[in-house]
Amino acid sequence: MKVIDHPVLGEVVLKKNIRSRNISVRIKAEQINVSLPFFSSYDDAMAFVESKVAEIEKKRAKLVSRKRLFTIENPTRTFSFEMYLVPLPQKDYQRIRKGDKLYITFPGTDNPLTDSAQKIFRGIFEYTLKQEAHKILPAMLKEEAEKHGFSYNSVRISSAHSRWGSCSSSKNINLNCYLLTLPEHLIRYVILHELCHTEHMDHSKHFYARLDQVSGGKSDEYRKELKVYSIG
């Protein structure tokens, strides 16, 4: 195995593999892994990587944009709390909550961008997000329903990465805890969207007329803005 510190790509890990017939590249946020046949040289592998630098950077940018990346430099901000990563001389990962600040302390020798570290951060983040969502979203739903004359049967909080919310024909509303990663006006827009489904189960002109009415004539604007955000 050989590790190269590339000026553009950062850490590039080259590994010879008896099963490899060709040079292949696996892209991660924190490093680039290159698998090569035993008969290939490391120089051959790096020449291949050099020919793909622009393509690799483009794919990595898409990878990072699809998935929330937790970093020391940029705190993760939500509707009700901010999460900070703090490297310390310790052996494990710890969750510390102080008011609207959530601190995750972790071993200073660990790279926070590895898949294993990101999985831990994501688990703690989602756990806290669910706790907050159970306190905030049902109350917000009740407020909007009473304000605009809607009625619903029940509300459930989920963490699915497929949709912001849903409403069944029985008027059971499902809201995603990741709504708390949105600006407040978009949280309320999604809630109003689902409440409108208690009256119109389809996306007919009557549904959109009602949604536009309760969202202050800004339903089109908010719908376009929501597309900028991803769940997770």
Describe what is shown at a glance.
The protein has helices spanning 42-51, 53-66, 115-148, 184-196, 205-214, 219-226, and strands at residues 2-6, 10-16, 24-27, 32-36, 76-77, 82-88, 94-98, 101-107, 154-158, 165-167, 172-176.
What does this structure look like?
The chain has 232 residues and is of the alpha/beta class. It contains six helices and eleven strands. It has helices spanning 42-51, 53-66, 115-148, 184-196, 205-214, 219-226, and strands spanning 2-6, 10-16, 24-27, 32-36, 76-77, 82-88, 94-98, 101-107, 154-158, 165-167, 172-176. It has a four-stranded mixed β-sheet with strand order 1-2-4-3. It has a four-stranded mixed β-sheet with strand order 5-6-8-7, with helices on one face. A hairpin with a 4-residue loop joins β10 (165-167) and β11 (172-176). The protein is elongated, with a radius of gyration of 23 Å. The two termini are 34 Å apart. The model has no long low-confidence stretch (mean pLDDT 92).
3D shape: elongated
The order of strands across the largest sheet is: 1-2-4-3
What distance lies between the first and last C-alpha atoms, to the nearest angstrom?
Answer: 34 Å
Contiguous runs where pLDDT drops below 50 for at least 5 residues: none
Structural class: alpha/beta
Mean pLDDT: 92
